[in-house]
Amino acid sequence: MTENIEIILRDECRLEKDRPIIVGVSGGPDSLCLLETLRQAGYLIIVAHFNHQLRPESSQDARMVEKTASRLMLGCYIDGADVRAHADREKLSIEEAARNLRYQFLFKLARERNAQAVAVGHTADDQVETILMHFLRGSALNGLKGMSYRSIIKTFDFEIPIVRPLLSMWREETVVFCAANGLRPHYDSSNDSIDFQRNRIRHLLIPNLESYNPKLREAVLRMSQSLKGDYALLMELLETAWQETVTDADENSITFDADLLSKCSVGLQRNLVKHAMQTLRPAVDVNFSTLERAANMINNPTHFSRVDLKGGLRMFRESNHVYVCTLDAELPFNLWPQLTGMPSVPLSVPGQVELAGGWKFNCEPWGMPVLAREQAERNEDPFQVWLDVRNLSKPLKLRIRHAGDQFAPFGLDGHSQKLSDFFVNAKIPQRARENWPLLCAGDEIIWVPGYRPAHSYRLTEATKNVLYFSISRPREKNS
Predict the structure, then answer these.
(1) How far apart are CA 289 and CA 274, in angstroms?
(2) Residue 342: how many other CB atoms lie within 10 Å
(3) What is the pLDDT of residue 389?
(4) What pLDDT shows up at residue 320?
(5) Can you tell me the distance from the alpha carbon of 190 to that of 196, in angstroms, rounded to the nearest whole number?
(6) What was the pLDDT predicted at 393?
(7) Which CATH class is domain 2-209?
(8) Distance separating alpha carbons of residues 108 and 465, to the nearest angstrom
(9) Domain 344-472 falls in which CATH fold?
(10) Alpha-carbon span 17 to 4, nearest angstrom
(11) How much is the average pLDDT of 281-305?
């Protein structure tokens, strides 16, 4: 065991011997085995005990841990809280409240003492019970693979890891180890209570399942080890897809390229959304129904343009972008041209107008009508247009929309429609409509940049006078 645990401590837990480790010690055989194992291996140890105040004898556990630490000449910190009262106040289960308070104490101490890790005495039995708990909840691969030797729990700390060196040891082995090393574990009577789900799994479910497979615990442990490899592969695929599909990210929003996201498999889409949610809200509990709604939105954009997720997060699509964001996120406006700060701007020919976010509007005369028609027929850029200006008598200007605006777009044979209806039909993002720049002759709209020109200003064989208009996008940050 000594040789094997040394490898686990060094390679799996990635612990160093020159920095302290906070060791959570309850006083039971598992935590005492962990404490002595680390001590014998030469690691710097700080003992930490949290009194949950759930049993009359809990204060005795604290004193026993303190005496053990003193005998071994180790630093020791004791804390505690009324877990039952906290559970009632926060509407949590006793188990969840106890875990939250205990880990808050351990990680706070780790930060104060500049510790490299928090170590806990989870064993192979705990692993099996945890996996069965996750299975009963309908967990995905991340839950079914179980706990890892080393992991980050972002709810408690973004940098300090939690390590579980005893995951390959069975509970019976820790009892034998304690006896062989002169350690006297304290018996926790609450471990027998079937009021707690983990105890019901331990004392009722597992013995029942072992009537079908006497080696059930070993089988579940093997499954966990196999799924860890599958999960590592999935994380590699996820990281590659994340780099390819995410176009922007900050503390309040993650932006995906909608086309690239829709080309991913549904399973990968779900995992990308889950990763985005947990990046913004590390503590959020992401369930399958939430991810299924997200996948439906990605793959059916005409039916779903917005979904509420969990944890104060939402997801919606604008143009070619899919956002996962907080409710108060300030999303970028530089995805589209915007005329801000003034309702209208006069245009000169040739001339240029600076728009918000680095966009620029340009206009210039075009001397060859035949070439203009050829260019227009081949044009695939919606932000450039050639217009026939033979009947242009009013000054040109850029302006934002007005109430009651009408527009006669190319393709409707001169029939006009409400500009608001055109915006809806063209799927211009709603929050971009208010300041969308409109090219006008007087108050008549002759081009909606990014979409269509007015029908009466289209190029024909009779066109003699042509003006060329374009909007240039802001330069990419890495260019």
Answers:
(1) 12
(2) 9
(3) 86
(4) 83
(5) 9
(6) 75
(7) alpha beta
(8) 74
(9) Phenylalanyl-tRNA Synthetase; Chain B, domain 3 (3.50.40)
(10) 17
(11) 86
Yes or no: domain 244-326 corresponds to CATH 3.30.465.60: yes
Question: 348-353, long-range: CB within 8 Å, 24+ apart, which pairs?
Answer: 349/396, 349/467, 353/398
Contacts of 323 (CB under 8 A, 6+ apart): 253, 254, 255, 256, 314, 315, 316, 317, 329, 331
- Are 92 and 121 a contacting pair, CB within 8 Å? no
Among the listed residues 131, 155, 152, 154, the one whose alpha carbon sits nearest the alpha carbon of residue 141: 131
Tokens 């480790």, residue?
21
Count, in order, helices (H) and strands (E) of the chain. Answer: 17, 21
- Residues 137-167: pLDDT tens digits? 888 888 899 999 999 998 899 999 999 999 9
For residue 47, which amino acid is it?
V
Surface-to-core class of residue 100, CB atoms within 10 Å of its CB (0-12 exposed, 13-18 middle, 19+ buried): middle
Q: In degrees to the nearest 10, what's the CA dihedral of 98, 101, 103, 104?
A: 170
| Range(s) of the chain covered by CATH 3.30.465.60 | 244-326
Within 10 angstroms of residue 89's Cβ, the number of other Cβ atoms is 10
Name, in order, each residue with C-beta under 8 angstroms of 33's C-beta and a sequence gap of 6 or more: 121, 166, 169, 173, 174, 177, 178, 183
Contacts for 217 with CB less than 8 Å, ≥ 6 apart: 124, 125, 128, 170, 206, 210
* pTM of the predicted model as reported, rounded to 2 decimal places: 0.70
| 362, two tokens | 């340009």
Residue type, 245: T
CATH 3.50.40.10 domain locations along the chain: 344-472
Q: How far apart are CA 197 and CA 8, in angstroms?
A: 30
Q: pLDDT tens digits, residue range 171-186?
A: 999 999 999 999 999 8
d(CA 175, CA 369): 92
What is the pLDDT confidence band of residue 476, given thresholds at 50, 70 and 90? low
